[in-house]
Amino acid sequence: MSQMDLGMSERVKPLVEKVRRMMQDEILAADAEYHAEVGKAGDRFKFTDRQNEIREGLKAKAKEQGLWNFWLTDSERGYGLNTVEYAYLAEEMGWCVLGPEIFNCSAPDTGNMEVLERYGTEEHKKKWLKPLLEGKIRSAFLMTEPDVASSDATNLDFKAEKDGDEWVFNGEKYWSSGAGDPRCSVYILMARTAARDSGVPRHSQHSMFAIEAGLPGVEILRPMTVFGHDDAPHGHMHIRFTNVRVPADALLIGEGRGFEVSQGRLGPGRIHHCMRAVGQAERALKLMCERSLNRTAFGRPLAKLGANYDIIAECRIAIEQARLLCLKAAWMMDQGDARAAAPYISQIKVAAPNMALKVIDEAMQMFGGTGVSQDTPLADMYAGMRTLRFADGPDAVHRMQVARKELKPYTNTKV
Amino acid sequence: MSQMDLGMSERVKPLVEKVRRMMQDEILAADAEYHAEVGKAGDRFKFTDRQNEIREGLKAKAKEQGLWNFWLTDSERGYGLNTVEYAYLAEEMGWCVLGPEIFNCSAPDTGNMEVLERYGTEEHKKKWLKPLLEGKIRSAFLMTEPDVASSDATNLDFKAEKDGDEWVFNGEKYWSSGAGDPRCSVYILMARTAARDSGVPRHSQHSMFAIEAGLPGVEILRPMTVFGHDDAPHGHMHIRFTNVRVPADALLIGEGRGFEVSQGRLGPGRIHHCMRAVGQAERALKLMCERSLNRTAFGRPLAKLGANYDIIAECRIAIEQARLLCLKAAWMMDQGDARAAAPYISQIKVAAPNMALKVIDEAMQMFGGTGVSQDTPLADMYAGMRTLRFADGPDAVHRMQVARKELKPYTNTKV
Amino acid sequence: MSQMDLGMSERVKPLVEKVRRMMQDEILAADAEYHAEVGKAGDRFKFTDRQNEIREGLKAKAKEQGLWNFWLTDSERGYGLNTVEYAYLAEEMGWCVLGPEIFNCSAPDTGNMEVLERYGTEEHKKKWLKPLLEGKIRSAFLMTEPDVASSDATNLDFKAEKDGDEWVFNGEKYWSSGAGDPRCSVYILMARTAARDSGVPRHSQHSMFAIEAGLPGVEILRPMTVFGHDDAPHGHMHIRFTNVRVPADALLIGEGRGFEVSQGRLGPGRIHHCMRAVGQAERALKLMCERSLNRTAFGRPLAKLGANYDIIAECRIAIEQARLLCLKAAWMMDQGDARAAAPYISQIKVAAPNMALKVIDEAMQMFGGTGVSQDTPLADMYAGMRTLRFADGPDAVHRMQVARKELKPYTNTKV
Amino acid sequence: MSQMDLGMSERVKPLVEKVRRMMQDEILAADAEYHAEVGKAGDRFKFTDRQNEIREGLKAKAKEQGLWNFWLTDSERGYGLNTVEYAYLAEEMGWCVLGPEIFNCSAPDTGNMEVLERYGTEEHKKKWLKPLLEGKIRSAFLMTEPDVASSDATNLDFKAEKDGDEWVFNGEKYWSSGAGDPRCSVYILMARTAARDSGVPRHSQHSMFAIEAGLPGVEILRPMTVFGHDDAPHGHMHIRFTNVRVPADALLIGEGRGFEVSQGRLGPGRIHHCMRAVGQAERALKLMCERSLNRTAFGRPLAKLGANYDIIAECRIAIEQARLLCLKAAWMMDQGDARAAAPYISQIKVAAPNMALKVIDEAMQMFGGTGVSQDTPLADMYAGMRTLRFADGPDAVHRMQVARKELKPYTNTKV
After folding, report:
1. What is the distance between the alpha carbons of residues B65 and D229, in angstroms, rounded to a whole number?
2. Whole-angstrom Cα Rg for chain B
3. Substitution target from D274, D308, D324 for chain C, most C beta carbons within 10 A
4. CA torsion sign, D171 to D177 to D183 to D189?
5. Is B138-256 CATH 1.10.274.10?
6. Are D105 and D69 a contacting pair, CB within 8 Å?
7. What string of DSSP letters covers A254-294?
8. How far apart are CA D412 and CA D415, in angstroms?
9. Is D74 exposed, middle or buried, given 0-12, 13-18 or 19+ CB atoms closer than 10 A?
10. According to the model, what pLDDT value does residue C76 have?
11. B306 vs D: CB within 8 A
């Protein structure tokens, strides 16, 4: 009788094996070529034919083998994998940016599809969920805003106002990841539907909407950059809405229930992010080990010099621990009590990105100049990973959650 | 079908619950009183009546409930617990020094009993194993030597020479933990039986012996102290052997097979140490949380000041990760491939004590002066834990093992 | 024209040289013998003849060479050394516990002498200051209390009440360092002279007193221990006062001016502590280097194994930085603007003890078991240094001060 | 009499003040505009008119005020500033990339000018040194090679062979910083002039040359990128030399004396880099403080949340310590004993970039997503600073130097 099985199930093992083989044998190399193509179509946010060919070719191949939509947990249409099983796949897919998309498991689409499945109308499902499940369109999640500390989401100020049968949106969103993709067709968007001083409770002042991308009044102001990268053609867009009108049924579940949707959406998303972070760390450690054996200085391979053994060991120890914690958080989710799982998700949300950054940084250092250059993927990996220390909540907020939970047994009063 | 079950089995759950209750309700308080008695018998290495009463009373109570000899993995006489199951018990017992002895699960006895069971003669078993299993006598493990870097155990130089039907021992051992206990009746001892330049392979120059404690020629020179503590009446003794003679059958398994015995002995022992370290960390975190809520400065409970939430959260995150890694190492052992388990044991041997020291240190700091004083157990906990960064191999040696394993797939030549 | 001279002046160089020679050649060895004598007089808080002989012999020798009362900055009776000059001497004297006393530069006497000189009556000076300057008696500083978070000193609750011509004291103090010394003759003591809710401003509710040690009603409850050490015969005493009566002139400067005195007292004291911490770190690094060259494992001196070069280098880098910051804080004090110097003192108060602990800890690890044992001074050094992270204000409070100062230029409102 | 004056001299104070004002009031803003122009001339390695206008306008203004060529230490043509004085200026100029060039104090020009002044022919001086001193041309230093671990410079394999009256160069160099600048007219280049197995001592197998940029046979293969930045138009170029011929007098000082030149060149250069790193850290801390006060979450400014005070304080403490160590290293250089100064330079070369990275990283975290985006300079600062952990020698090599020096007094044999 299994109590806390964190291993790979027999069911998922062959899937992991196939995904791993495809990642290592094809997708890592394809990813490099794919990203080297960016901009060759004139506009960095357009695809070249070669990009379409690479991506769709790999997707077709994955689909053909049934390596598709793994994230559909407990669903008839998917494998019905649990979170622990999915976590192992996420790690493999996370070795490079292109990975998850090939298997239709990319952020923010997976979370958005869940939202649409759970809360969308039939029309929403037909129009957006179906093509998303087929990998034909993409989506974005519009939450963060430029003018407020979005780490405290009750600050969000982007406005949705009811006007007859329609909702009217005004405000700015940024870090809208994926909104740059020319295929992006739908936004899941959080907006304030009650004023701060309306008397409505602070956590019921916001609502979630599903709206068509690129409606009149929507201006994409610019891509936000990450260490100078625009991450085209995905993009983290800064978007302005001016009197953008959508039909009443764009509202999901009900007015004032935005946090309910966002919380349900973010939990699994954080675990996926973290397991991909573990994948990134494994990749960095592999590169570090290879370099340490292939490069010679002072007459010996780097591995044998100074602290390098210790560095390699510390990286391995850190990876193992973070992976296990991530699997435990996944397992907690699978137990069905989201409230109980939450502090574990916060824990790993702090631990995994910091661990991965450390490993990538050590790998960089083993490579010297090559480590920050275009000759290794390390700098891109570092930049991408660095955002994970605030995306979906900064470290400090997650630590606050963990501490609150920790202190609860010792106090009757709210801490 | 369980792949890597790191949870508590149904079988062990009630045991853990009982041990926890006994530890929290009785043994923690008894431990304080027990250690406060040290020295009152005149000699710090003698027991007072009150000590005997406390200890034997608790042991009887534990035995009565069948909470005894948990470490006997896969044995008819014990529960046949696997290493993962035992690990959960070790964590609970590890909250204080007295804990493990109450359940007859103390180091170095558990390891020594395993050695006697596996390699001892019938005579050995009758004379030492049986009373050890009954908690009537105690034992010591004599390995470390003062004059060589014992972290590289091939350096060990204490001599055993065959003289007719007897072995003759000459040399010094120190950090012989438990040798100070007046009940200590048997030493498991590693000695050099082939000279360095004998042509015998380096890992076959040593042998393991089981010998009676306190034979003629054995002088206990002094207890080694740990941050000034002699850890009486257990004691980490410095012992000199001068022409100490024992019968031929003191030799276990065979000449030159000392490392085989010590390796088999140290693997599980390290896991036990590490899980007890997790228990220590949990205790420190509990103390820290309580203090942070009960103490006020600048008008607020300490918990709400500065970085204290972050500190508490980081401690929790660190504990969770170390525990999981420890459980994984235990699970690896249970798979039966010691070679495959070894690097995991090395990983946790580095990770757990460093984690526990960090948590204990943060707890101290939350308490201020009280944290290093007799008014909390923290300083004793710190001192004890500090030794675990070199006992059974220093961090650096374990990191070396981890790195070697990590680099192996990338090289054909030995690194 | 000197702007920020952090070097040794020509004047202080020969003093440093003489102190160093005496420390290295005589006092380090004497310190070990001196502390080994503790308890041999029956009572750990009594001196043996040998202790008196060692200590007074060295003091006489130091005095003879004029190596005495260096701390008397800008005084006719001393060398008139500035704080930077004194800092170099403090580092040398700080290598072992006995060091400062030999040169009559011990805490808490130096600070107490300054208080008496500045604020004492003629009677106080005659009775206590003169023999203190001559090294004939010793003193204690009674500030910290068991029942409140003394890190926020406005919490202090020990009461002094005026009753006719006398003050009457009631309450408990602990961590009263030096109060265990049989020669201790005077206490400088902080007491609450206005109730919390008296309407008196929070920083004017306390007053400072100079009172005779051991008056009727004073009970020494116990020595507080530090990692189990009672630091006898110096001692950090827990003392209870019950209706202890002293004459009116025990009050220094004036009612409600306790913080004024304590602040003036603590600034230089913190710098002295920090420079002694630098001395401790230098001693630990020296021991570490020697060990790394004298001990062999895996066929090479420890120095050449793994990360040891890196560890040694990091220790050296950390020491250099902390020393320089300490010297800068000293130099700031010498500029005469205590307010401007304060954040530098807070900076070094955080940096120096943490640095020294790290260096001592690394030294321990290089020694293995020997590092925590009686065979090296490292564990005692660690224990002593650990208290410096809360003595005279915990890290967190000093960091708060530094941050406040840092943020000030960016805000008009108080942060 | 000054012993170790690390303060600003009266002489340099007004210079620092003027440079600071010009940096803060003009150059920081100009730097942003200047870099935003990159690429607008079609080729990223060409300047736009606006760039020329910005840069030359500021240079003219600086020159006019005599803020020019500060690096010319002890020279009739400069201010004759010593290294400590220059260090204070370097810190101010280091706040942004454009800073140093405005005052003709950029790397690698300053080092190259020193080389030309000391070892160049009259012809070299006329052709290159004069226009460099006037800010009319720029230069590059070609040392690092793609195919060897250049951290051990004896590995360098780029070949220079004597052929009659000429030297013939073959090989590749990369990370040739500044070689992308269209004004770059001269390369200082290190080449192997004796084969590894020639019997020539290992440190005499290389020679230094001054050669015209862009000769026939020189191909610029690509700019190396740093976290994806090509750092155009400066550029870190990868260059291939195929039978490039230069006249005999291109050889500086003498065959086999390459290390002599490079060592002399790198010492001060490292100090300059480190003081600029201190400037970068100050800038990051300023941004962090402002953000912490201007941004609100959970109803309070970020500064007042969680660990933010502690983070700000730790950054200030780290900056102060690194600056002081840098000033001490500078002061050591000014004492004229390069051998004695070397370990201090290694110390700061490890300490300063790591400190600056930590501060910049914390600043990023305070800003959340904005911290890695184009809306703050932090990500660019981080990327640039990250290279300093291997440029001019990786941390590990510098730590090795520090440890060697540290261990020397304890051993007679070479460690």
Report:
1. 69
2. 22
3. D324
4. negative
5. no
6. yes
7. -TT-HHHHHHHHHHHHHHHHHHHHHHHHHHHHHHHHHHHHH
8. 9
9. exposed
10. 64
11. yes
Contact A112, A132 (CB under 8 A): yes
Report how far residue C36's alpha carbon sits from residue C56's, in angstroms, rounded to the nearest whole number.
17
- Sign for the CA dihedral angle at B20, B26, B28, B30 comes to negative
For chain B, say whether D310 makes contact (Cβ under 8 Å). yes
Q: How far is CA A127 from the centre of its chain?
A: 23
Interface residue A198 vs chain D (CB under 8 A): no
Chain-chain contact of A7 with B8 (C-beta, under 8 angstroms)? no
Q: Which residue of B has its CA nearest to D314?
A: B307
Asked if B8 reaches chain A (Cβ–Cβ under 8 Å), the answer is yes
The DSSP bridge partners found for residue A224 are A236
B292 at interface of C, judged by CB pairs closer than 8 A: no
User: Using a CB-CB distance cutoff of 8 angstroms, which residues of chain B are in contact with residue D310?
Assistant: 306-307
**Contact B324/A322, CB-based, under 8 Å?**
no
Token pair in block for residue C302: 């420890």
Residue D249, CB-side half-sphere exposure with 13 Å CA sphere: 8
DSSP code per residue over D233-282:
TT-EEEEEEEEEEEEGGGB-S-TT-HHHHHHHHHHHHHHHHHHHHHHHHH
* Closest residue by Cα to residue A159 from A204, A223, A205, A97: A205
Contacts of A412 (CB under 8 A, 6+ apart): none
Distances (CA, A) of D327 to B213, D278, D333, D360: 62, 11, 10, 21
* Residue C309 with chain D: CB contacts under 8 Å: 399-400, 403-404
Q: CA nearest A155 in D: which residue?
A: D297
Q: Among A10, A11, A402, A408, pick the best mutation site for testing chain B contact (most B Cβ within 10 A).
A: A402
Which of D386, D338, D392 minimizes the C-alpha distance to D358?
D386
What DSSP letter does each residue of C77-98 carry, written as one string? Answer: SS----HHHHHHHHHHHTTSTH
Of C146, C368, C382, the CB nearest to B394: C368
β-strands A138-142, A184-192 pairing: parallel
Contact residues on chain B for A1, CB-CB shorter than 8 A? 9-10
Q: Which chains touch C (3 or more CB pairs under 8 A)?
A: A, B, D
Closest residue on chain C to B224 (Cα): C373
If you classify domain C259-410 with CATH, what class do you get?
mainly alpha
Q: Is B322 helix (H, G, I), strand (E, B) or coil?
A: helix
Q: What span, in angstroms and rounded, lies between the C-alpha atoms of B379 and A174? A: 50
Amino acid identity, residue C71? W
Best CA proximity match to B72, nearest among B132, B17, B119: B132
Q: Where are the domains of chain B?
A: 13-105, 138-256, 259-410
Asked if the C-beta of B309 comes within 8 angstroms of chain D's C-beta atoms, the answer is yes
Q: Which CATH class is domain C13-105?
A: mainly alpha
pLDDT tens by residue, chain B, 415 residues: 358 999 999 999 999 999 999 999 999 999 999 999 999 999 999 999 999 999 999 999 999 999 999 987 665 666 789 999 999 999 999 999 999 999 999 999 999 999 999 999 999 999 999 999 999 999 999 999 998 888 888 999 999 999 999 999 999 999 999 999 999 999 999 999 999 999 999 999 999 999 999 999 999 999 999 999 999 999 999 999 999 999 999 999 999 999 999 887 777 889 999 999 999 999 999 999 999 999 999 999 999 999 999 999 999 999 999 999 999 999 999 998 888 999 999 999 999 999 999 999 999 999 999 999 999 999 999 999 999 999 989 999 999 999 999 999 998 654 4
| Angstroms from C391 CA to nearest CA on chain A | 27
